[in-house]
Amino acid sequence: MKSSRLFSTRNGQALLCVFRNFSISTSRHREKHYKLVVVGGGAGGCGVAAKFTGKLGTGNVAIIEPSLYHYYQPLWTLVGGGIYGMNKSMRPMDSVIPKDVDWIRARATAFDPDDSTVMCSNGELIKYDYMVVAMGIQVDLHKIKGLLEALETDPAVTTNYASAYVAKSFPAIKDIRGGNVLFTYPTTPVKCPGAAQKIMYLTEDYLRKSHRRNGVNVQYNTALGVIFGVPRYAESLLKIVEKRNIDVDYKMNLEEIHSDRKEAVFRKLDSDTGETKTVKYSFLHVTPPMSAPDVIKQSPLSDKSGFLDVDKYTLQHSRYQNIFGIGDCTNLPTSKTAAGVASQSGVLRRNMTAVMEGNHVAQKEYTGYTSCPLVTGYGKCIMAEFGYDGIPMETFPLDQSKERLSMYHMKKDVLPEIYWKFLVKGYWEGPGTYRKFMRLGMGHVTKPSEARV
Ligand SMILES: Cc1cc2nc3c(=O)[nH]c(=O)nc-3n(C[C@H](O)[C@H](O)[C@H](O)COP(=O)(O)OP(=O)(O)OC[C@H]3O[C@@H](n4cnc5c(N)ncnc54)[C@H](O)[C@@H]3O)c2cc1C
Prior knowledge:
8-stranded mixed sheet; 5-stranded parallel sheet; 13 helices; alpha/beta; binds flavin-adenine dinucleotide; 453 residues; FAD/NAD(P)-binding domain; 22 strands; globular
């Protein structure tokens, strides 16, 4: 019998809470016990750990996180566009993880929710009373043939979606001298879907400003049938691509890259015969396919899609009441963004506290709020904000579907400050309160009960 099972009763759990950071060595692995374990120390994980360490006390909360650096990924669009250096988007992980939280520097390798344990790559078995899964989304670079090789060897192929390659983007943009400049969007869910085209608008603007736009064919190849999922913002984007002579090709899925010949091969998704189209490129920005982290897919925690199966309003796991989820690794039917994470963190705080105190979970309902600052050039941004079913939830008392300099500064200067100073420290739970105040209760706002339809 495993030593942790000796304490698996309700009383035993209470006893374990007395022994903070309980640790036993066995012949197979070391075991530890925490009141709360957070898996993933990204945007969602750090904020949640910070909120709960105050309530639960030093040593009762642990974060399992393998990376030495924490990244503010929304800045990668601006790094790719040459506005900031990569360093500005990253901080050492130990400077971001709250000081009273134990950092387990390892990957979670297996979940056993029936035993309330997580196995880690360093050989430790972590037992928990409550767990928050915040592992982000997996970027599947290997699923496009030739992409990894092209990213490593071809200076003209890049992606803002992986930390190792973001810094390649701006030098590649500066090298464009003509030809087909391609941007792609895959068939899978991705984080910040808008980022696939934000870098395109920056590139096009850069070419225009440096008098090199003539002779360049800028093309957006998307596997979707629309330019953006929310009609209010799609309408604005369609006007922009038309005005700026950007080609949009729908239902085109990038399948293969031949970097030796500078060719990209797309599958035409609306062709009955499985037709492909090969396009020569002089520059290629890839938005790779993404999926749930393998360790979630392979566990009882996932739904059919592989993502963490949570209730879309309460964020509690659909089958395990002591597990909650936040952010990109969940099956929440809304766009995966840090803005969404902020809003979810307030819901999770209220609902998990209620469960810990033995109350009903639905103290607060998530509206699906998410936001995508659609940078459309140097000094221009459409601030898309919406909830479930694409219902706009705009914060400011102005038409946010229009390009604005003020929203560009919000994205470039204000949101990074909010992220580092408030979100990862557990203080920022989204703009809900400000929205009510600024719009005086009017405007494009949906209530959870309306979103249920
Ligand atoms: C190019 C780009 C532009 C973006 N632009 C915006 C934007 O403008 N606005 C916006 O709001 N959002 C934007 N985002 C999206 C935003 O960054 C993510 O939605 C947000 O970071 C999600 O937070 P998370 O905590 O779910 O995941 P992450 O922040 O990705 O954190 C996940 C953490 O889990 C860790 N992890 C992974 N596997 C394991 C494991 N096995 N065990 C333990 N830990 C593990 C990872 O190391 C990581 O630290 C953008 C993202 C990209 C890539």
